[in-house]
Design goal:
The chain has a domain of about 130 residues: Protein of unknown function (DUF541), domain 2 (Alpha-Beta Plaits). It has 4 helices and 8 strands. A 5-stranded antiparallel sheet has the order 3-4-2-5-7. It has a 3-stranded antiparallel sheet with strand order 1-8-6. Helix 2 runs antiparallel to helix 3. It is elongated and about 80 Å long. The relative contact order is 0.23.
Length: about 240
């Protein structure tokens, strides 16, 4: 009796599962309109990240390192002396590179280069004070011993409001496109079956300034434009139609 009952029960369950699956077609089996929308919003930058460096070279590593340390301390003290509110400083890169003479075999070390980079961060500023502060810091860094301005990056500290605005606009555009397609095709939109989004990366522009070998009289504070940041969002939507 058990040998008969188990196969029959199994077949019955399989038939019930197949019937239930047939009543719930997957998204691939539905009539759908697929479309997307994209929006880009722009906001004024309110923050900056600047990398300044002191690079020293010489034959004796101890002397080169000591010279670099003295100049780096002078740069840090000069920037702090500007008394800019909420200023943040940290060492972002420190390296010692042997200078080799490859004309001889084996190559011979004939000197060293010490590179000490300081990252300066300012956040949550109005445009004019931010521009003025960055300009003063660069000028002061060059004046006090820095001979490399690696980069200046401007950005927006809190982008959530702009991201929400871009999401709303891109979603509305995707829905409008779906309505236009449905009207042109003579069908009706039934309901949304899929909605997704993803940010679209826009390369961050970095201002590159090189000051190696510059004389003191050439290190006046440069004019700085802080610019704007673009935020781009794409939304994809799928409507079931009838």
């Amino acid at each position: 009796m058990k040998r008969v009952f188990i196969p029959v029960l199994t077949v019955s369950l399989l038939l019930m599962a197949h019937f239930a699956f047939a009543q719930c077609p997957s998204a691939r089996d539905r009539n759908l309109i697929l479309t997307d929308g994209m929006a880009e919003v722009t906001g004024q930058n309110d923050s900056a990240r600047i990398s300044v460096a002191v690079v020293t070279q010489g034959r004796n590593l101890e002397q080169v390192s000591s010279e670099n340390a003295d100049k780096t301390k002078a740069v840090i003290q000069a920037i702090k002396g500007l008394n800019i509110k909420d200023l943040k400083l940290k060492t972002s890169d420190y390296r010692v590179t042997p200078q080799r003479d490859y004309k001889v075999r084996p190559p011979k070390i004939n000197g060293y280069e010490v590179h000490n980079a300081i990252e300066i961060t300012l956040e949550g500023f109005n445009p004019e004070p931010l521009s003025k502060s960055v300009s003063m810091m660069i000028g002061k860094a060059l004046e006090s011993g820095s001979n490399n301005i690696n980069h200046i990056q401007f950005y927006i500290k809190n982008k959530s409001a702009l991201e929400k605005q871009a999401l709303k606009q891109s979603t509305q555009e995707a829905m409008d496109r779906a309505r236009t397609l449905a009207e042109a095709a003579g069908v009706k939109l039934k309901r949304i079956v899929s909605l997704s989004t993803q940010p679209v990366q826009i390369p961050t522009r970095q201002h590159m300034l090189r000051a190696a070998g510059m004389k003191t009289e050439a290190s006046a504070a440069p004019p700085i434009e802080i610019g704007e940041t673009q935020i781009r969002v794409q939304v994809s939507i799928a409507y079931e139609i009838e």
